[in-house]
Give the backbone structure.
Amino acid sequence: MKIDSKKLAKNLKKLGISAEDIETLEEEASSTNTSLYDVVDRKHIIPDEDLGKTISAIIGYPYINLSKIDIPNDVLEIIPENIALKQGIITFGIDEEANKIKIATINPFDLDMINDIQKKTGREAEIYYTTEPNIKNIIGKYHEKLKNIFLNMLPPHLRYTKETKETKGKKTEEIIEEEIPIVKIFDAIMLHAYRHHASDIHIEAAKNNTEIRYRIDGILHKIVSFPKIIHESLITRCKILAGLRIDETRAAQDGRISLELDNDNVAFRVSILPTHFGEKVVMRLLVELEYSINLVESGLSEDNYKKVITNSTKPYGMMIVTGPTGSGKTTTLYNIIKLLNAEEINISTIEDPIEYGIEGINQVQVNHATNLTFANGLRSLLRQDPDSILVGEIRDQETSQIAIESAMTGHMVFTTLHANSASVGIPRLVEMGMEPFLLTAAINCIIAQRLVRKICPNCMQAQAYSAETLGLIYNTKNIVDIIKKIALKNYSEDELKKLDFENEFMFYKGLGCKSCSFTGYKGRIGLYEIMELNDEIKKVILQGDSADAIEEIAVNTGMSTMLENGIEKALSGITSLEEIIRVIKT
């Protein structure tokens, strides 16, 4: 939606913004090729409600503050949560007498969306303008009622007690068949995980209950406890959808579920494992790569992005991404090869499992039953005339040997490795039996990464720390010196004069609100360090020096560590200092 900048500037003056400040804002909008409204909104120049009323007056639609309205759940859920967030639109009331549906939106001129709602409800739309933070806060109502949504699917006598007189005397199978809609419950577990942007679903057997947990932004959240009576049926439903053996309960099984949720095609990678109290299911949500964030949005700085592009477009060599499980290594490599994907290039992969299907790339699934291992698959791929090869993970000497030889014989090889930092990747490969001279000849660069939670923009608050406090709270090597180094690099002289960077530092935290389910965080972003193997680093590797010595040379020759990258993001208000320390654990 376009807002007339002249009218907005006029209204800003009425709100007490000086002509000088407005001129500065207009200059920033011009230099960044954005609108005055975008700059005002981004910088929070005026309170959200004042901005909403200002825009409302300009565009001619009434303003509504949704936080002051009690919205019925059935009205709120007319629009699915993911659509509400994506389109910035909420249904908040129904006028039965006039047969109207009340709509609050950040873009009243989105007639297609409004017409769809009118057709769906059979009611005429009564349109109100509201702001994006207003929409996000109301979305929290979806989260509050999630537990009740699940429990209300159970018959009343099973919602809050383990067993009642009504259930005694009946066989478990009879109760489930007669009273509990297992298919509906399991489908709802997957649907709401998708709507809440969960990365994983855990269905766990406890002594007396079945626990459902979602991993959201890297943290596990308990969603609901079901009575244990339904556990076996939930697992069976999962096995049927994933094409697994329902009679096998003592062995681990892996599968995949694909289905349509809110008109989107969603895949789940399924892992089932027998535990003490029963089988446990973990389902990883695999969002289509087209909808995933790109390399820039993932948190790569401009300098690091250039390093990635430079090293990935070389005619041969190896690029390794390191980090623990769940740190986004595979997504990073997928985004890189997606950038390289072209008709004139043959890109092949060997993966376990194939997480995302990419058109134009030959993807091979590891299959131990047929002896199609990483090593054997890689040997076969080399006979398929590849230009670039992605090896899902280097796990052993045989795979690493073939991958390095491939990189030295005219192929560009991308792979992942479990290591805590970029410099530790070298000793890990040496431990696998690789000669240092082969590593220096084959490797172009090593990327290390982590994922940290972003502070919720709707409840962000600045927080000052003294240098002494930082030293006491965070037992982290040279943290105060690193903060000063980052601050001096990123702040202008005028800003440094206003702020006491010698003794006090300004960071941020989320207070918690409905929009972030009162966690203070919403979404995740990457922390990166990229070590290019220059002559100085190669010399240290050939000498057989430690990972610390390699890192020291890398830093001295221009590498920014993950800790530095994290502190830079914390100073900018993207994440909190506590989150950086939690994830990096230096």
